[in-house]
Amino acid sequence: MSTDSEGTLYVDAIREAMFEEMERDERVFLIGEDVGAYGGAFKTSAGLMERFGPGRVIDTPISEVAIVGAAAGAAMMGMRPIAEMQFIDFVSVAFNSLVNYAAKLRYRVGVACPIVVRGPSGGGVHAGPFHSLSGENYFVNVPGLKIVYPSTSHDAKGLLKSAIRDEDPVLFLEHKMLYRRVREVLPKDEYTVPIGKARLVREGSDITILTFGGMVPLAEEAAEHLDRDGVRTEVIDLRTIKPYDRDAVLASVRKTNRLVVLQEAPLTGGFGAEIAACVAEHAFDWLDAPISRVAALDTPVPYSPNLEKHYLPSLERLLRTARETLTY
Question: Does residue 126 have an active-site annotation?
Answer without folding.
Answer: no
